[in-house]
Design a protein that fits this description.
Helix content is 42%, strand content 17%. Helix 4 crosses helix 5. The chain is α/β, with parallel strands linked by helices. The relative contact order is 0.16. The protein has a single domain, classed as TIM Barrel, CATH 3.20.20. The protein has nine helices and eight strands. Bound molecules: pyridoxal-5'-phosphate (PLP). The site of pyridoxal-5'-phosphate has 14 residues, from strand 8 and helix 9.
Amino acid sequence: MDIAANLAQVRERIAAAARAAGRDPSEVRLVAVSKTKPAAAVRQAWEAGQVLFGENYVQEARDKIAQVGPGPVWHLIGHLQSNKAKLAASLFAVVETVDRPKIARALDRHARELGKELGVLLQVNVSGEPQKSGCSPEEAEALAQEVAELPGLRLMGLMTMPPFFDQPERARPYFARLRELAQRLARNLPPGSMEELSMGMSGDFEVAIAEGATLVRVGTAIFGARG
Ligand SMILES: *Cc1c(COP(=O)(O)O)cnc(C)c1O
């Protein structure tokens, strides 16, 4: 597995997708998703210039972050339980999966105790699949208003995971829906609160970029298949 070569290829594909959409490639940041992969893999990516990393599980991230050491910036992209909020607030720069007031308040309290401002994205279940985490598009407005007022949190935008499709084009309407929701919410929020759209994974990040993604979360295309 040549992680540096994979990264270079993914970065080139991101830049090409941005240019094809008439966007500046620097508007799209890559979150390298390292879940289930060892610290050594993260280090290889870091040495190849990758800074942002995404992890799904708080405990796995704690061990890995300790092994990797300082440098990388970590995003939580997996579902968060309240009893892990304190640890999550200390490990991550951004929690992309805030989907209910209770978890927002817990993160706010712990972030303030740590004297840090925690970046937050609201995870929205735009497809309405019952097994998926994320608030509904209808709930997002009230949640955004509440998060915007919490001093320990910095609301940055929205995150979503569309249903899985073999054909990436079929995910496009879900990406478009997230972008439209962010535009709508932004009208009643402080400036800067809805700048980030985290959407797109290995199979569909080019379509997500065409629909406005500013953060793409890519694992397999960088680190290989997960066992
Ligand atoms: C695992 C995961 C990814 C990365 O998926 P790949 O298909 O390996 O690129 C992105 N986002 C979330 C929320 C994930 O759980």
